[in-house]
Amino acid sequence: ATCGHGCKYGECMGPNKCKCFPGFTGKTCNQDLNECGLKPRPCEHRCMNTHGSYKCYCLNGYMLMPDGTCATSRTCAMVNCQYGCEEVKGQVQCLCPSGGLQLGPNGRTCIDIDECSTGKAVCSYNRRCVNTFGSFYCKCQLGYELKYTSGRYNCVDVNECVTNTHRCSLHAECLNTQGSFQCKCKQGYQGTGFDCA
User: Fold this and answer.
1) What are the GO BP annotations of this UniProt entry (predicted)?
2) Do both 104 and 165 map to the same domain?
3) pTM of the full predicted structure?
């Protein structure tokens, strides 16, 4: 079985047929499945979609049970948590629906952890980190684009001279470089390459 476009989060099962891992969808299994939009809904109250999965949380005054359901709780209502709570050894603790969120100083609301600036996020070579609320993702560095080559997804250099996305003067030559480009004024002209006279 060969899949020309590859199966990013899945396995190749037949000619260009991917079987996606749970939580992913699309022809090449490269899209996150939004479980919160499924019928029947996976969560009783509120649902937060995450990369390849999802998290359930309850309305204020309810407690998230181990089976994912929400049970009324007087203690929870009193604590007034933003995203529901749980009881641990008789102590009520507010919950955050994602590992990329942490409890704020008031112990009730959740604040975002910037994985990119704290160094928690590790992006592979040629990729930069982009922080999102509750998570992060890795994006190709500027001047590179995501391409499926030799059996995997890689960030490959964009040839600005070929794609015509350079800003060289009409009287200059465009020279492609890794992740960028250079402009050189043609013979008989002088200047920066962006302006040649």
Assistant:
1) cell adhesion; cell differentiation
2) no
3) 0.49
